[in-house]
Amino acid sequence: MTHKEFLRRRQALLSYMAPASAALIFSAPIVIRSHTSTYPYRQNSDFWYFTGFNESEAVLLLIKISCDDCYSVLFNRRDSLQDQIWFGKHLGQEAALKKLLVDDALPWDLIHHEMYRFLKNITIIYHAQGQYDFADYIVSHALEQIRSRSPKNITPSITLLDWRPWVHELRLLKSQEEQMALREAGRISALAHQSAIKILRPGMYEYQLEGEIQRTFSHYGARFPAYNTIVASGKNACVLHYTHNDQKMHAGQLVLIDAGCEFKGYAGDMTRTVPVDGKFSGPQREIYNIVVEAVHLGLKLYKPGTTIDLVTKAVIRMMIKRLLQLKIIKGDLDALIAHNAVHPFFMHRLSHWIGLDVHDVGSYGHNYNRILKPGMALTIEPGLYISPSSTVPQEYHGIGVRIEDQIIITHNGNENLTSSVVKESDGIETMMMLRKIQ
Ligand SMILES: [Mn+2]
């Protein structure tokens, strides 16, 4: 992201803020994995949105004295020689001024002594209360210092408000630069699905596909997955958030792969379901083809002016019709639609926002009725999951299928970021057959 982009974002938040106010945006803490080893560091998405700065122990202050008098302050870690030996270089204060375009930078270890100075004449503090205990403590400590240092006849009145509703609205509409990052996340995620499908053979373990996906992400410049990769063979696909990934895959099963990389902080998210041995059985193909038709219907319907709710209803109607034809459900079509008879087999939502978080922030509106606009990014992911204990005909038991693409709403429709991996059942069989003779 360019400097201009970060300044534009900060300016947008400042424009919502009242005069004599300050917004505090904290970076994420390091999380301990075990004793002295830590989980890979993942920056807080909001802090990243305003800074592109990937260190812990930092806070950005945006201070608005009046409409034309605003400035920014960063508290961040010192770049000490001792730290350099153990952890490598930190950005430090001097470089932060230039690199992050802040007006002032102070060492993090002075935060309890210095923070209150910037909040002295402020009447509103915008702060994401309850997100991090350490951040709440820093804010309340600063408030207490302001109170205790005020003249005895004046009790300062400072209001705490949450900036998240504003910031999460800003994040919902993706800029051109954000769309480019999402496009690359989608492209790399699709390449990873392709290479996983290429090496898939009966007898392999689910985690071996996970490894191939991770290898491909890294190969193309995306070091981390955007979420825990799901590789679910056979009936494991009916477990929506299956991440054990430890089972052997057998001929005759389908395998559901839900994996996306993170690129510049932006998430890829896509799912494909393919036969382990490259050939769909009759019942598998019947279920699979319904889900493919559902994705294509969604891709056709998503455009500016519609809503997630409207598209979901159209997709559900279509799926119920097809399940009725297969006699998986029985009854009157209109009554089945009125009662959402597909729910026992499709129990999650069709779409979610996607951006810095895989399930991104931003209001969906009442009952998912938010009007879609160009620049909004979302997934489309219909699925059908027929558990082994289901009462439907035996031949469908244990079949779980999900297909997921990632789109951006454009001026006249949508752009599919993950279309490069084939979805049609015939196309998958051809692709998997051709890979054998390569
Ligand atoms: Mn998803």
CATH superfamily label of the largest domain: Creatinase/methionine aminopeptidase superfamily
- The CATH architecture designation of the largest domain is Alpha-Beta Complex
Structural class: alpha+beta
Quaternary structure? single chain
Q: Can you summarize the main beta sheet?
A: 6 strands, mixed
Which hetero ligands occur in this complex? manganese (II) ion
CATH level-3 fold name of the largest domain: Creatine Amidinohydrolase
Mean pLDDT: 96
Total domain count: 2
What is the β-strand count?
Answer: 19
Strand content: 15-25%
Name the overall outline.
Answer: elongated
Distance between the termini: 40 Å
Q: Please compute the radius of gyration using only Cα atoms.
A: 25 Å
Strand order of the largest sheet: 6-5-4-1-7-8
Keywords: Aminopeptidase, Hydrolase, Manganese, Membrane, Metal-binding, Metalloprotease, Protease, Transmembrane, Transmembrane helix
Enzyme class: hydrolase
GO molecular function, one term: metalloaminopeptidase activity
Catalytic activity: Release of any N-terminal amino acid, including proline, that is linked to proline, even from a dipeptide or tripeptide
Fill in the keyword field for this structure:
438 residues, alpha+beta, Creatine Amidinohydrolase, six-stranded mixed sheet, three-stranded antiparallel sheet, 13 helices, 19 strands, binds manganese (II) ion, hydrolase, manganese ion binding
